[in-house]
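Journal club prep, shared notes

We agreed each person brings one worked example of a sequence with its structure written out as tokens. Mine is Probable transaldolase. I'm keeping it raw so we can talk through how to read the token line rather than staring at a rendered picture. Sequence first:
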Amino acid sequence: MKFFIDTANLAQIKEAHELGVLDGVTTNPSLMAKEGITGQENILNHYKAICEITDGDVSAEVIATTFNEMVAEGEALAALHPQIVVKLPMIKDGVKAAKYFSEKGIKTNVTLVFSAGQALLAAKAGATYVSPFIGRLDDVSTDGLRLIEEIREIYDNYGYETEILAASVRHAMHIVNCAKIGADVITGPLSAIEALLKHPLTDNGLAQFLADHANAASK
Ligand code: G3P
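Then the structure, token by token:
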């Protein structure tokens, strides 16, 4: 399973990259705004800076909501760097744009997916990635992981190559459960990825090993 980090924060992207487990980055307009990145030139430069940190795919989301504008914006984003994946919203023109980019060999990530039907459409359009938002479904008392299972079953039934990119991942157990279900990729904050490290028995065990070693060495 691939690990993407879901942030536009360069320091956190570097930290995840240095851990050696980072396969790519996803961003969205809210994450860019959170870092204070505004203005077209700054936004494009920021995507380039992200591509310089990671070797993997970097999702850059269009702001446009009509087909022609999405194509123009997506082409400009894709031209920035070979690692850029054009992120498109799951609306009618977004599906059309996913088909357009797929035929041109440009990678896409269809985002804001909340149902199996939407994921089926994204695959039919030839999207590289589909992003079901599991945390936001959990927020409204709907099982986000169940959606991943449904999409996995549908894609496997027909051999769709669109990768299931579980998004809106909030914590370590989302990641573990996505791995059990067969999501191709997770994207989440650095905190969720680093939480996979943690176990008190590891910390206690290491403290004991080091204490025993120091004790023996002092004799
Ligand atoms: O990748 C989608 C993600 O950014 C949404 O996450 O935590 O805002 O629901 P969240």
